[in-house]
Amino acid sequence: MHQRTHFDLPLRFIGTPFEKKVWKAIADVSYGQCASYKDIAQKLSMKAYQAVGQACKKNPFPIIVGCHRIISTSGDIGGYAGGRERKLLLLKLERRDKMKTAVLLANGFEEIEALGVVDILRRADLDVDTVSVNETLEVTSSRGIKVMADKCFEDMDHYDMLIAPGGGGAWVLRDDQRVTDLFKKYFEEDKYVAAICAAPMVLGKAGIVKGKNVTSYPGEEIESYLKEGNYKEDAVVIDGKMITSRGPATAMAFAYALVEILGKDAESLKEGMLYNKYQSA
Description:
By secondary structure, this protein is of the alpha/beta class. 35% of the residues lie in helices and 16% in strands.
């Protein structure tokens, strides 16, 4: 059965000039994709991204103009005039084919940032491959834990998201031309690229951070690769399809943001894993 993914209807928007601009910008967000309120504000050369959320609430064509595709910068799905449950359902419907992600592992990878993220993504029923950049499947972590990856670095074009963990392995990933070329290819194909801790160096080495909001583990060497971007100190920074995070302490927040971005219910996971309960402890 044919599944409609867009509408070609002539629309007559009735609202303020600002609201009309917001609705037209939202209409440009493709089926199955997401943008943040901040993305829309920046597209309109504005700083008041909270006003974008208010305009979304007044959207007269909530399905045709897909304001359900506009999420918070933190990765949370945000509010919706029809309720959060309906918004999550719409996002899931648009991503009903399971999204495939690849976590790249090099010797010296940081365990929490790699395996912790894999754990949370798989709890969300996402299809995740651990990928060894070594010649064999075995990869040794920063603290000597030997891990057998799911596959070696081959047939890498079919994923929806690439994830690079930090630790000493981030330097190995940075210096591997195959890896930087792949991140650049994914970025150019409008696919998701994610990195945490020292691994945003990979994005910088790939030449894809110019003008993007990014973060990383603090340090002169790491940050030197991100000078063309807009450096932030938030736990998780989302700019379009580029997601970066700071380090081991932010690994869970990073993983939950990825879950939400990939169309799954991060809030239920947070509750079940007691994440929300102890955030303020």
